[in-house]
């Protein structure tokens, strides 16, 4: 089985940490079930050379916002611009299977707003979300969701 490919951006390290936990969990699952998919997490940053993706992938994106209150206008997403540009590079957006969002529920309407914006831009859905660095239950839940969605 092909690994579940996830492109992500991580500014504070929370998203990177979550995906490391998700990859470790996938490896543990495969140890007891050889058909369980592994996780291939690829960080996209300002240093990334853009390329044409050749297989379906998920996107995991944190929420970084400036201005506004999440209800009215004035909200500006920032910090994940390179990831967004990579996804829209050539035909990459057509291979997006879904968006995973992270954020802080204290921000109310702004919670996972970046993920919702990416879903709209790629005409996909937010398939999962978690808060901050995520919990063990989040890892298990999101792995289960991605495993189901990535089946042929």
TrEMBL record:
PANTHER family: PROTEIN NRDI. InterPro entries: Flavoprotein-like_sf, RNR_NrdI. This is NrdI-like protein. It comes from Periweissella ghanensis. Pfam families: Flavodoxin_NdrI.
